[in-house]
Amino acid sequence: MLLHINPSSGVPIYLQIENQVKHYIASGALRPGEALPSVRQVAADLRINPNTVARAYQNLERDGVLQTVPGGRTYVAENPTGLLKSEKIRRLRPHARQMAVEGTQLRLDPQEIIDLVRQELNALEEAHERHSDLDRKAR
């Protein structure tokens, strides 16, 4: 997990860390149960105070995004809370807006736009099922 901070962005460093961890989880780069680097390691890598990293991790744990094992490491929560869903929606919203704008410009009925998205979701689900079947047969 590569974290980057920008001290001159005006966004507190702990929030930059929180947002990046949420992004990694929402994108699937960090999976449930996966260990995160230690507070000390992140602080050393970013050359910041360990308390800053600890604050970010504590906030993420409080929000149900991370779990810390007493005296141990910090992991991505097995059942992340709705915050991750809100992060996914935040990332998807510009694409939904663009589809709405394009569909409207093409003078499509709102239901036609919704049906198009539903068809694409069904096609993805079918492709996923075919892929899962192939994986099972390969074993």
Name the descriptors.
2 domains; 139 residues; 5 helices; Arc Repressor Mutant, subunit A; two-stranded antiparallel sheet; mainly alpha
User: Which percent range fits the helix content?
Assistant: 55-70%
Label the structural class: mainly alpha
CATH class of the largest domain: Mainly Alpha
Strand percentage lies at under 5%
First-to-last CA distance? 31 Å
Our count of domains comes out at 2
What number is the mean pLDDT?
88
| CATH topology title of the largest domain | Arc Repressor Mutant, subunit A
The largest sheet, given as strand count, sense and whether it forms a barrel, is: 2 strands, antiparallel
The CATH superfamily of the largest domain appears as Winged helix-like DNA-binding domain superfamily/Winged helix DNA-binding domain
What's the gyration radius in Å?
Answer: 20 Å
Strand order of the largest sheet: 1-2
* Tally of alpha and pi helices: 5
| Unreliable stretches | none
Oligomer: single chain
Question: Would you write up a description of this structure?
Answer:
A hairpin with a 5-residue loop joins β1 (66-68) and β2. The protein is mainly α and 139 residues long. Strands 1-2 form a two-stranded antiparallel ribbon. The longest helix is centred in the last third of the chain and has 29 residues, at 110-138. The protein folds into 2 domains: 13-76, Orthogonal Bundle (Arc Repressor Mutant, subunit A); 92-138. The mean pLDDT is 88. The chain contains 5 helices and 2 strands, in the order αααββαα. It starts with 12 loop residues before the first helix and ends with a helix. α1 (13-27) crosses α3 and α2 packs across α3.
